Predict the structure.
Amino acid sequence: MKGPVLALDVGAKRTGLAISDEGCIFSFPMETVDTQKIILHLEKIIQEKKPGALVIGIPLNLKSEATQGTPKALQTMEAIRKKFPSITIYEMDERFTSSMARQAMVMGGMKKKDREKKENTDKLSATLILQSFLEQLARFGWPQVREPNP
């Protein structure tokens, strides 16, 4: 697969975005976008960055069951799949990414007022989702893609 990998942390209001380097080793935070406008925004990003794949974080609880955020993430994934059928989309368990993002901001010395901005948590969560995917990619290679339900 050629090109960087783009990751999304889909939320009810905002979607955090992150992108990898061309070698698919490192993940970098990008921005947050209004979830209602994500498809329009992705058109620009896909044209500019030419990602080889997308990773979408799927929120699950400790029992690997759907949470209240799961339907929105799956709905957004299906909309992206319909709009961009040539791009491979992978799902990634996003359990604990928000709490890990908040902890990383504290440990990184980010000022409290900046940590309180939810958009910082969202884009850092996308970065953590992507980094987890890239680590699995390095260990196991490209995963199988789950086919959408008809």
Remarks:
- The two ends are 26 Å apart (CA to CA).
